[in-house]
Amino acid sequence: MRPENTEDNILETRNLTKEFKGFTAVSDVNLRVRRGSIHALIGPNGAGKTTCFNLLTKFLEPTTGTILFNGIDITREKPPQIARRGVIRSFQISAVFPHLTVRENVRIGLQRQLGTAFQFWRSERSLDVLDERAMELLEQVGLTEFANTVTVNLPYGRKRALEIATTLAMEPELMLLDEPTQGMGHEDVDRVTQLIKKVSAGRTILMVEHNMNVVSSIADKITVLQRGAILAEGPYAEVSKDPRVMEAYMGTADAELQGH
């Protein structure tokens, strides 16, 4: 078996640890996310998945450990620096303007990427050049017909598609999706799952996801966290049969882990 080429990894953590007043939320995590893959982070509630995401996007500083992106140590960088490198987390730029249209929200994502984020004094006409790209992104996520819909009136599942479109507007090299199908019905879950698969072409996705059907159908690799530490790692077929993983889900996930 050939040794893993570290250049294949877009993101790597070494002994990543976060402690809160004596409580260890993330413990000695060595995560390797392969370039061009869909990598899922799963685990029971309280496993440290969100804390891990917050460390990667620099909303939290690690107590100890190192984070490498494209081989560069980004451990002490601030959230805007991380975003400029192409690490974009979906909620960071979600549709925060509910009374603007779907197209206007995507256009704001495009402005942020251009670094003209909050120059609302600019004439409306000067932003029209972004419309073509905005419509391309909306087509990509299946929202063309909703372009002129005021975002607050968008159906729930379509709002997640809009979040993905605004994330794509930032030209991410690594997309971090936090519970992308949470609170959705089957039809929306299926649509968003297929959408994630579609937009993964040419980029890398790291996602926290509870829905095992989603994980089993699109993730190339799965990392299972328990009490802040990595319990198991590998392809879904392997991880789902791991007795330690089943036990971590305390029996309640036996059916869940089999994708039912």
From TrEMBL:
InterPro entries: AAA+_ATPase, ABC_AA/LPS_Transport, ABC_transporter-like_ATP-bd, BCA_ABC_TP_C, P-loop_NTPase. It comes from the Bacteria. Keywords: ATP-binding, Cell inner membrane, Cell membrane, Membrane, Nucleotide-binding, Transport. GO terms for molecular function: ATP binding. Pfam families: ABC_tran (PF00005), BCA_ABC_TP_C (PF12399). The gene is artM. This is Arginine transport ATP-binding protein ArtM. Residues 11-252 form the ABC transporter domain. CDD domains: ABC_Mj1267_LivG_branched. Signal peptide: none annotated. Gene3D superfamilies: P-loop containing nucleotide triphosphate hydrolases.
